[in-house]
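Duplicate of #3305? Posting structure anyway:
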């Protein structure tokens, strides 16, 4: 069964690029886009999509307001926030509304797709081996993994943790080794799925 996706974004170039990226992945069908909260709510309130990608900063209305409204509908769609520089209080409110992920618009396409794929309804990774591997990480490695799960780039992680980008890259290498994942994309996917396990 195809996953119907809807984009709420007021930057047309980004919206078109995102649509083309998602249409290029198997099992996804584009069902529409909106640039304003009221327009998006009219299209989505009766269950018009399975996946909604939302920019919190809209020219008219609020992405956060839309997320809060969608959270109250029966069988709400999977909601993902795509953001550049949102205020921490807005991100906290978005999390409280039940979004599946908050992802940076700076993510490269493979990492973005992996992070979106990871939000598909699936059992969380409660596998004892994986939990043990996560438990074996250092505090700093867990912080980096948590940041990856939030969709932050290497530069953003470095700024948040007050370390150099090179140090972040070193932690990413160690995380791939310790968690036994082969690629950076696989690491991001695991980081999103593992939220709540560390």
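Output from current build:
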């Amino acid at each position: 069964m195809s996953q119907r996706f809807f984009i709420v974004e007021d930057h047309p170039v980004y919206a078109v690029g995102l649509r083309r990226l998602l249409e290029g992945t198997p099992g996804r069908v584009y069902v529409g886009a909106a640039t304003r909260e009221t327009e998006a709510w009219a299209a989505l309130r009766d269950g018009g999509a399975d996946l909604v990608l939302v920019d919190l900063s809209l020219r008219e209305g609020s992405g956060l307001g839309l997320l809060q409204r969608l959270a109250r509908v029966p069988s709400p769609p999977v909601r993902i926030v795509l953001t550049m520089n949102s205020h921490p209080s807005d991100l906290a409110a978005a999390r409280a509304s039940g979004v599946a992920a908050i992802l940076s618009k700076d993510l490269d396409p493979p990492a973005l797709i992996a992070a979106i794929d990871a939000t598909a309804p699936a059992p969380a990774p409660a596998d004892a081996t994986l939990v043990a591997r996560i438990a074996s990480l250092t505090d700093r490695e867990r912080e980096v993994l948590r940041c990856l799960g939030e969709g932050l780039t290497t530069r953003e992680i470095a700024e948040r943790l007050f370390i150099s980008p090179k140090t972040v890259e070193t932690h990413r290498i160690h995380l791939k080794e310790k968690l036994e994942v082969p690629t950076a994309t696989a690491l991001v996917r695991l980081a999103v799925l593992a939220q709540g396990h560390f």
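Confirmed duplicate; merging threads. Residues 3-99 form a domain with the Rossmann fold fold (CATH 3.40.50.2300). The longest strand covers residues 28-34.
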